[in-house]
Amino acid sequence: MALSASTTLPHSVESVTAVFVNEDFLRHTSELVGGTLESFAVDGDLAGAFNTTTVRTIPTTRMPDLARKFVGESLKVTQLESWAAPAADGSRESSISLKVAGAPLDVNAVQRLVADGGSTRIELEGTVTSSVPLLGGKIADAAEPMVGKALNIQSTQAQAWLESH
């Protein structure tokens, strides 16, 4: 199942990047959906290429019953991001991989933070797949809207965060 989203924030790529890798912001967005931020780590200097590892526990209350049968009441999600160094215009790209403990679900995406004057256009493209024979497509189809919403929450909350901090 394909993921695709785009939004523009009236802030620089540098500011948006700083929010996306801010532990307090990640805790805030995790709690906003009823989850918890278990851990967060940055490996490297934000001025260049770097990697992040975010581990969250999120409730499954909003998932379809089909998916909940497989995963239970909550999910432990590990999000790995590999950020490229900024381009000449400040734009950045990160490869995102989500692994869900105990669930046959994989998410791989590329997020681009494109400098657009003083604003940042956030573009996200990716896929949600499941390895369960016969039911894998249905599980991925059920999970895709939830994954898409979770990744979009980050963008919409970043706007509010930048305006209030």
Which regions are unreliable across 5 or more consecutive residues at pLDDT < 50? none
Number of strands: 7
User: Kindly state the mean pLDDT as a whole number?
Assistant: 84
Sheet having the most strands: 7 strands, antiparallel
Separation of the first and last Cα atoms:
36 Å
Strand order of the largest sheet: 1-7-6-5-4-3-2
Number of helices: 4
**Oligomeric status:** single chain
Q: What letter string, H or E per element, gives the SSE order?
A: EHHEEHEEEEH
Structure explained in plain terms:
It contains four helices and seven strands; from the N terminus they run E-H-H-E-E-H-E-E-E-E-H. It is an alpha+beta fold and 165 residues long. A seven-stranded antiparallel sheet has the order 1-7-6-5-4-3-2, with helices on one face. The chain is globular, with a radius of gyration of 16 Å. The protein starts with a strand and ends with a helix.
Layout: helices, strands, pairs:
Blueprint lengths: L1 E8 L3 H8 L2 H10 L3 E9 L5 E10 L5 H7 L2 E10 L8 E9 L4 E12 L2 E12 L5 H29 L1
Antiparallel strand pairs: 1-7, 2-3, 3-4, 4-5, 5-6, 6-7
Helix pairs in contact: 1-4
Features:
alpha+beta; 7 strands; single chain; seven-stranded antiparallel β-sheet; 165 residues
Short account of what is shown:
The protein has 165 residues and is an alpha+beta fold.
